[in-house]
Amino acid sequence: MFKQDKLRPAIRQKATATLELSSIRKTRQCTLPEWSPSCWTNMTGQCWSIHVKLLTLLHVTSGYYQRWKNTFVVTDLSQRKTLFSRRTKPTDLLTGDEIKAVLSVNLCKMENTTSDVWSADSLLELMPSNPVRESFENAWIYMNKHYTKFQIATYGSLIVHELVYFAACLPGIIFQFLPFMRKFKIQTNRPENFDGQWKCFKLLMFNHFVIQFPLMCGTYVFTEMFDIPYSWEEMPPWYNLALRVFGCAVIEDTWHYFLHQVLHDKRIYKYIHKVHHHFQSPFGMTAEYAHPAETLILGAGFFIGILLLCNHFIIMWLWVTVRLFETIDVHSGYDIPYLNIFHLIPFYGGSKFHDFHHYNFNGNYSSTFTWWDKIFGTDSQYKEYCAKLQAEEKKKGL
């Protein structure tokens, strides 16, 4: 027992405040003169436990704290008794060997948990659950149970294509009737008209059902030849699918850039690609308004990515969905960057970039990204055009 008069008042106040911590409230509330070796041993052990818990919080998230705390904290009472039984006064501290013994025991326990905690699946558990996963899973299982692979790959793909295509075109159709959306129109002097849209729609129907539908039937042959799975159980995780779809976009953009330049060759331009440039100010539906030969030539880039990266049938539907939304966006004729999630993608061209291609007929040959045009300098006229517009805006501001 040590005497109260030997402690300075500041130390005495700090010790009393320490005893009032919520984590030590379970211990016996004792005043300073009542401290005993057993009381000090109990409190020191709990303070050590709290200290190790705080270290744990620096390394793991709150979601994994409950999983790891038993690994780091000394919970063996016999071990704690051995370590702290000799603590008879505040000036006694744990020796280096004793601290090393405690950490060695707990680090050994931790060896079997670190690999699991930092694995991809464990980290994904921290993300919020997908609210539509269960419904989508049930729908996918129902589809596989009630329809054949041929029906899914052919008629199913046609339905997905048509629904996605015209759903993506719908906002642009509505925008032309909203006066406040005119400020987002890129070529304000060339508004849409019904005759042009009807002409575009008729050629679209021909291309969709006469050209593209037979190609969709060919996807069934591809899935059977390469044993591409359809089942829910064999579906890869979402991040695997996302990377493969991104890879398809890079492959298609590369194919589109070089073949698009070939189609602009003066010797063949008027026979094939001129059809697509009929509308100098594009709108959403003009995305697939093209000569049937161009549909086959440029459309081949879509299937190259599928041939190289497809490991489940759903990639075909995901890729066609992303590709349709992207191509309709760049042909929309409207630039709304703050509401367009595609602009979050680095090097994404967007509607202004491709709209200039229809306005100028040359340059900006890429379909999605801008890097090929930057590398080969085919965006030089677009840069000059943007610089000219900025200069005009500055003059108006003055």
Automatic annotation (TrEMBL):
The keyword Oxidoreductase applies. It is found in: Membrane. GO terms for cellular component: membrane. Residues 247-378 form the Fatty acid hydroxylase domain. Its main location: membrane. Keywords: Membrane, Monooxygenase, Oxidoreductase, Transmembrane, Transmembrane helix. PANTHER family: STEROL DESATURASE. This is Methylsterol monooxygenase 1.
